[in-house]
Amino acid sequence: MSSTSLAPKSVEELKALLENDIKVKVAVDGVLRGKFMSKDKFLSAVQGGGFGFCSVIFGWDMHDTVYSNELLISNRGNGYRDILAEIDLSTFRRVPWENNVPFFLLSFLDPETRKPICADPRGVLKKTCDRAEAKGWHCYAGCEYEYFQFKETADSVAEKKFTDLQPLTAGMHGYSLLRTQLNNDYFHAIFDETAKFEVPLEGHHTETGPGVYETALAYTAALRMADNALLFKFAAKSIGMKYGVIPSFMAKPWGNLPGCSGHIHVSLRDSNGKSLFAVSESELKTGREGATNDDVKFLSQEGEWFLAGVLDGLPDIMPALVPTINGYKRLVGGEAFWAPNAVTYGYDSRAASVRVLSPPSVPPSATRLEVRVLGADMNPYFALSAIFSLGMRGIEKKLQLPGPPIGQLSVEDKRNGKIQMLPQSLEAATKRMMRPESIAREESVLGSDFVDHFGGTRQHEVKLWNEAVTNWEVERYLELV
Fold first, then answer.
1. How much of the chain exceeds pLDDT 70, in percent?
2. pLDDT for the residue numbered 76
3. Hey, which of 214, 303, 368, 377 would disulfide with 299, CB 3.0 to 4.6 Å?
């Protein structure tokens, strides 16, 4: 686990850091709910091992509707009892756009057993990282977000009923140095304020689409990466409010335009910080002997097994990667916009579900895999946990790659079944994940407790969608059927 540079190493140091503060902000993962606490209450909770937090945060959806199913963590039967919120001091930072208020993230424990609850995003990823560290491996990751932006406010989009929204800029202008000049202060504020917030960025530019930016977060330890990915959305939305802009991380806001990706880069490192996926220096000349094909010849044997593990379980963990109804709209017919929808891989291929980044395109130390299925609406904790768990399963089982790389396949191979397709809707993906024989249910992957809980939340989302009547239906059927 990687701490922020501000993180205190003791309660005494914490008290000194908060000497001039009167309040502290704490937050929950996912939609990022939270609250202010007095400094005295906060310090008491730190010293007492946590504080009670209403369990309904795991019992309702992003619009505060209680889930259709009575889920394990929070339900009417137990009266939405408190669960134990544990303050992670390693996440300490200050919120620069809120008068530098101290800020901490929470993890959640069962109040009786004091074990992480299965639905807690940070707890899920911590468990995966701990499993890796027990083998002498360390999980590292990077996230990239694409996101549309609108010259709107929360009030204006509600008044417009979320229609006829004004993009931040017009036209398709990827990597434009001109379009950023139109909103220069806002564009720079995202980079500058996130740096102060200890969410460092590697890249920040316009992407193709009206008002679209792409931002790459600095590569780091996986749990810190998930924290940063979550907090980047919070920062972008907060900074956007100041400038009258709404950044949207919805995966597919427009039917006729590219969607918004949330690509994840992953690798394992040993105790010396060396990439477990890198080949040896002697293998850099001709590639690894015994590699399955040329696309993975500059990937170590462990890296190839990890890749095979991700591909083997990919169809079974799709809701952890693409958790919304809308996210699958990005994948249907996704070839037009580089949104992969099948079990594929390839060396430096942006058309594949998993892109192999190895020499000669990157130095050996940067050898990694990029999982490109995800949209900007993903939960980084669940996504990283699923990917690393599948990869480690591949190493443990020494799994073989499922077929040739994408460069040796055709569109026809999807039609004739030579390529395994990914689920094309949240309903189909959830059914697959929740099957008794699902790889996601294996204890070394996500486990049945998580699958039952998270799958139940996705069934709720599907139920609401199936009950909804959309503008498309009214326009298509009202007069003519």
1. 96
2. 62
3. 303
Domain ranges of the chain: 11-117, 138-470
Given this model, what pLDDT does residue 399 score? 98
CA-closest candidate to residue 139, choices 265, 314, 5, 324: 265
Distance, in Å, from the CA atom of 55 to the CA atom of 75, rounded to the nearest integer, reads 8
How far is the C-alpha of 236 from the C-alpha of 32, rounded, in Å? 13
Are the CB atoms for 167 and 428 separated by under 8 Å? no
Dihedral pair phi/psi, residue 356, rounded to 5°: -90, 115
Estimate to the nearest angstrom the gap between the alpha carbon of 117 and the chain centroid: 19
The pLDDT of residue 334: 54
d(CA 400, CA 379): 29
Helices (H) and strands (E) in the chain, counts: 13, 14
Q: Which CATH number fits domain 11-117: 3.40.50.720, 3.40.50.300, 3.10.20.70, 1.10.3720.10?
A: 3.10.20.70
Sequential DSSP letters for 441-467? GSTTTT-HHHHHHHHHHHHHHHHHHHH
Q: Please state whether beta strands 23-27 and 101-109 pair in parallel, antiparallel, or not at all (unpaired).
A: parallel
Over range 310-329, report the average pLDDT.
97
Residue 67's pLDDT is 83
Residue 65 tokens read as 């509707």
Q: Is residue 398 a contact partner of residue 305, using CB atoms and an 8 Å limit?
A: yes
CATH for the 138-470 domain, from 3.30.590.10, 3.10.50.40, 3.40.630.30, 1.10.630.10: 3.30.590.10
pLDDT at 71: 62
User: Is pLDDT above 80 for 23?
Assistant: yes
Output the CA torsion sign for 115, 120, 123, 129. Answer: positive
Residue with structure tokens 């699902």?
Answer: 438
pLDDT band of residue 108 (cuts 50, 70, 90) is very high
CA distances (Å), origin 83, targets 61, 113, 225, 449: 18, 11, 25, 17
